[in-house]
Amino acid sequence: MPPEGRAPKFWKTAYRNRYLYLMTLPFVAWVFVFSYYPLWGWLMAFQSFKPGKPLFEQKWVGFDQFKTLFQDDLFYQVLRNTLAMSVMGLTAAFTVPIVFALLLNEVRNMFFKRFVQTVSYLPHFVSWAVAASIVTRMLAADNGVVNDILTGLGLIDKPIQFMANGHFFWGIVTLSDVWKETGWNAIIYLAAMTGISGELYEAAKVDGASRLRQIWHITLPGIRSTIIVLMILSIGHLVSIGFEKQFLLGNNLVLDYSQVLDLYSLQYGLQMNRYSFGVAVNIFNSVVSLILLFVANGLFKRMTKESIM
Fold this sequence. Notes:
By secondary structure, this protein is mostly helical. The protein is built from 15 helices and two strands. The protein starts with a helix and ends in a 5-residue tail after the last helix.
C-alpha cells in the first residue's frame, strides 16, 4: 500500500474503535502518572539532594552516589540475598502452579475441582502482614505446628528455631510465597488450558495415549506460549521482588539473609535522609530489570521463536 493511503486507513480504524480507545484512556493516564512522570526524580541520583530547595538548584555530584553504592560491601550481600530469593521464587513460582493446574485440569468432579480451586487461591487475598503472622506462628519453637509434627514423628529431639536461623530464611520465604500465590497463579494456566481443543484429546485417546502422554504432548504444548510470556516477565522482575515478605518475616537474627535491595534502599536511603543514595539504588534496580527483560526476551525469541516484543 502506498504511504499516502496508510493515514486515511489508520484514522478509519481509529474512528471505528474509538470507544475501545476511550476505555483505555484512564489506564494510560494511570501508567503515565505513576510510572513515567516520576522518572524525572531520577535526577536526584546525580545530586546531593537536600529537601526544601528546587530540584534544579541542588548540588550536582555526578556519579558519586553510584560509586558509594558499588564500594559498599553490604550492597553485594544484599544483592546476593535478592538474587538467591528471586531465583528460588522464580523456580517455585513456575513449577508448582503449572503442576497444580495440570493436576486440577485432570479432575472430572466439577464440584471438587471448584472447591479445591477456590480454597487454593484464597490465601492470595490475605495481606502479607496476616500471612507472615500465620507462618511465624506455625514455625515457632514453642507450640508451633511444624515443630510439634516433627517432634511427634520422632524426626527431631527438640524444637528447631526456624525463624532465628538465617540458613532457613530463603526457604521459608519461598515456601510462604508458594503457599500464598500458587492457587492464584494457576488460574492463568487453567484459563490457557480451556483454549485447547477437545478433539486433540479425543484423537489421542483413540491412538491409545495415556493421560500422562496427553498432558506431555497436548496440554503442555498448548500452554507453552503462556508459560514463556510469564517466564520472560518474571525474569525482568528478578531483582524487583519487593520487601514485604522479607520485612515481615525477618528479624535481627537473620538480617544477613533477609535484607534485599528494596529494604536496603529504604533503610540506608530514605530513613537516613540519603534521598539521592536511595534513588541511585532504585535506578540500579530498574536498569538491571530492563537488561534482564531484553536478554530473556532475546534468548526465548531465538530458542523458541516466541517473545513479548
